[in-house]
Amino acid sequence: MAQPRSGRLLFWCGRLVVVAVLGFMILPAVVVGIAAFNAKALLSFPPQQLSLRWFVNVFTYEDFQVGFRNGLLVTVAASSIALVTGAAFAFVLDRYTFNAKRVVEGLLLAPLVVPHFTVGLGFLILAAQIDMSRGYGVVILAHVVLVLPFVLRSVQISLSNLNPKLELAAASLGARPGRVLLTVTAPLLLPGLFSGWLFAAILSFNEFTASLFVTSQQTQTLPVAMYNYVREYADPTMAALSVLYIVATATLLAVANRYLGLGKVLNVEHTR
Amino acid sequence: MKTQRRPFFGLFATPGVLVALLFAGAMVMVLQFSVRLQIPGSLDVGGFTFRNFTAMLHPLYARVFLDTLWLCVLTAVFSLVLGYPLAYALVRSRRVAVKSAILIITVTPLFLGEVVRTYSWVVVLGNNGFINSLLLDFQVIAQPLRILFTLTGVTIVLVHVTLPVVTIMLAAAIAHIDTAYEKAAESLGARPVRVFFTVTLPLSGPGIVAGLATAFAWTFSAFATPQLIGGGKVNMISNLVYQLGFGNFNFPFAASLSVAGLALTFASIAVLRLALRPLEKVGP
Q: What CA–CA distance (Å, rounded) separates B194 from B183?
């Protein structure tokens, strides 16, 4: 049966719009990809000569090396703390009622709506007030606060999909609460725990605005180092680094999509 | 044997409560700095004052507030208009490959961070950038277009930064629409255009409101984009806060601007929700 003409028209217009929007989304990535291989220091399109010198520059520029190491340290620490704290608290929220439950949950989720520059300013002042030196501690704690909501939400979704009968079965067979948690609950929550941790880690590694406020020259993370580079130099080194970033992130997400189903994690899969 | 009524409660709740207290502490610091006097040349603060808030009424600052609000509104609207078709295609496409491609293209920028994304746009929009080179080569223009350091340029990049999250929120809303309603409308003879505008679009109302509110809040918290694309010509409150803190070491004023900004965002989102209330009450 032929579709009515209006339907076909809508269908093709829709397709055209979708392709155009996708083009807008990937345009900067493509352009940066071209710029990264340009031999000359001045940006020009199309490049006259190709070269890998900017990629070499990325790996030999000292601030990027230091930033990468600092970023890795902060990311590993912050995402691990956020994972343990967030998962444990999601469990408590799911199972128990207690005083100020909504208040604590609200405070933990608030960094989703409070601008990062405000959070950064707050931690900067807090660290100065309690005479904490501007070391890694304040950077890690600020990152924990910022990425925790993602772990919390991710584990909450997993917990609400959990079949309580499985835990009851284990308990009725005589398993102590600790054993139920370790052998039944935790394994069932693994996908939620992993995706929560992955999101937290990626977001922490890329966090910029709050980091700009709380890092010092010694503790600056990679995004802060990149920002400083862009302000000082105009050569395509940043383009080369951006390409590495884009490729690494897209690969990571494609793998996550293959094994975890990003659609399910992001809750955009058809449910009915 | 003593059975625990609430196994792990204390152990599991404590770290979360500590993190919540830490965040609350940081916010209280911002609040209390916002009503303190600045001591020039010192990071310590003086006594209680409301002067920081009255100083904001100066036209210079009022202008930044208005620009910020306007950019938030523009970004939210454009993100909605561009994000809806994308979200619709993401949810309703039948081909798994198409779905995955849209998902990866949409979600990747979300994780790249503001610096990489903004820098990429500098390369696209700059005077020697991609668009200007292209237009000059094809002799469409004689002089490079000035897009960097303009409101248009900042809006384009802000939309690019906000579009992914809006798309994801809209997609979640569209995914939860029961297709039976659409089929019912179709079987009663409604054309696809009519089905879309009278059934699908209204049913995704809650997603539209949530998407707009999120876009608004995200845009408000953008810093690297207005800083690098605006280049001092277009400023948002975030840039002003940084400038006052690290340029003038006036942390009390920076704090009061943050507080006023936060109040403004929450008020705007509340107004938005109120105005769009009819959209939120849909479905069975």
A: 12
Q: Check: CATH 1.10.3720.10 for B62-280?
A: yes
Instruction: ipTM value, please give it.
Output: 0.90
No. of helices (H) and no. of strands (E), chain B? 15, 2
Main-chain dihedrals φ then ψ at residue B146, nearest 5 degrees: -90, 100
Work out the angle between the directed axes of helices B114-125 and A222-232 (0-180°, nearest 10).
Answer: 20
**Burial environment of residue A243 by CB neighbours within 10 A (0 to 12, 13 to 18, 19 or more):** buried
Residues in chain A with CB shorter than 8 Å from the CB of B19 are 85, 108, 144-145, 148
| B262/A114 CB distance under 8 A | yes
**Does any CB of chain A come closer than 8 Å to the CB of residue B270?**
no
What residues of chain B lie within 8 A of the CB of A207, using their CB? 113
Domains of chain A: 62-265 (1.10.3720.10)
Q: Where are the domains of chain B?
A: 62-280
Q: Tokens 């948002």 identify what position?
A: B236
Task: Locate B246 and state its tokens.
Answer: 């690290």
Cβ of B112 within 8 Å of Cβ of A22? The answer is no
User: Each residue's pLDDT tens digit in chain A (272 positions)?
Assistant: 445 676 677 778 888 999 999 999 999 999 999 989 988 777 766 777 888 989 999 999 999 999 999 999 999 999 999 999 999 999 999 999 998 999 999 999 999 889 999 999 999 999 988 877 778 999 999 999 999 999 999 899 889 988 889 999 999 999 998 899 999 999 999 988 988 898 899 899 999 999 999 999 999 999 999 999 999 988 889 999 999 988 988 888 888 778 777 777 676 766 54
